[in-house]
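Work Package 4 report. The design task specified in the project plan requires that, given a folded chain encoded as structure tokens, an amino acid be chosen for each position. We show below one input record used in the internal validation round.
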């Protein structure tokens, strides 16, 4: 059937109205940082996939160039643990995960919208043009940590600017402190702090390993088994390595996760200390084998067991 001019204009108007509706709704329900994470091109790809989300039962996947975006309503079948397993086969250069801070009503039921972004590539391209001067970074670092370490200038030359374009000088300084502490070690550096009564910020730094996607899954699995929910997560290749023989200046990935618990929780609680203990082990254990499934997942053994 051939559409006339009026039909075409009507369809275009409906499409424009839906775009505006979902754009306004995303501004209302998603965390403030959501629109700093995604650029206008990515938002334009996401919006049409929300039009019929009330009739979508699975995970929608958008692939363009080296990017993968996953969109779904959170459920027992569709959640971050499931998607991290899906993504473990990829070489992940960057990942950002956002849950809606407000529920949306779908078929008379309040649901949580989840949008995940991954930069995947077979060959990492790190570097980019600095958007923060060393002078500004050093000033922010001194303000936060009292002094700028001699290594700060060297690591500034190895920042992966492609992965930190959304960070200001203060936030970048905080993450570089983690990188400086981790770059000469083969263990995971991990810390946790309280954001509010029910929200915690978990930070991990580790030198880059071959199984990047597999580590993402392990990290999310460990958090899940410890009884926390991940509302936001950022995985960044923070620095690169210019000299492959410089084992004291290894490239570092910094992961930041915002966790929530059902009730107010102390940083000294068994739940938190247990999580930190488990996370330090995820580099060294297999979490997809029979022993993990039967002993850790089902019987609540620790990874150390």
């Amino acid at each position: 059937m051939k559409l006339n001019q009026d039909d075409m204009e009507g369809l275009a108007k409906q499409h424009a109205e839906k775009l505006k509706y979902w754009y306004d709704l995303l501004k209302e329900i998603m965390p403030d940082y959501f629109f700093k994470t995604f650029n206008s091109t990515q938002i334009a790809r996401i919006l049409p996939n929300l039009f019929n989300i009330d009739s979508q039962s699975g995970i929608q996947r958008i692939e363009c160039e080296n990017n993968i975006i996953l969109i779904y309503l959170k459920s027992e079948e569709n959640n971050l643990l499931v998607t991290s397993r899906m993504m473990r086969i990829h070489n992940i250069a960057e990942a950002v995960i956002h849950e809606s801070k407000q529920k949306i009503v779908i078929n008379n039921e309040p649901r949580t919208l989840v949008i995940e972004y991954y930069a995947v590539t077979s060959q990492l391209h790190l570097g980019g043009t600095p958007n923060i001067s060393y002078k500004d970074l050093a000033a922010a670092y001194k303000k936060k940590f009292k002094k700028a370490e001699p290594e700060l200038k060297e690591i500034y030359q190895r920042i992966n600017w492609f992965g930190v374009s959304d960070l200001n000088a203060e936030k970048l300084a905080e993450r570089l402190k983690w990188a400086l502490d981790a770059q000469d070690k083969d263990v995971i550096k991990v810390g946790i702090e309280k954001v509010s009564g029910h929200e915690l910020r978990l930070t991990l730094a580790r030198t880059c390993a071959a199984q990047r996607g597999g580590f993402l899954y392990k990290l999310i699995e460990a958090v899940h088994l410890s009884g926390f929910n991940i509302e936001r997560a950022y995985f960044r290749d923070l620095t690169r390595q210019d000299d492959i023989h410089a084992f004291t200046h290894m490239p570092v990935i910094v992961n930041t996760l915002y966790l929530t618990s059902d009730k107010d929780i102390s940083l000294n609680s068994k739940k938190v200390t247990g999580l930190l203990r488990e996370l330090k082990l995820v580099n060294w254990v297999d979490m997809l084998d029979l022993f993990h499934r039967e002993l850790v997942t089902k019987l609540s053994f620790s990874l150390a067991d």
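The longest strand covers residues 199-207. Validation will be extended to a larger panel in the next phase.
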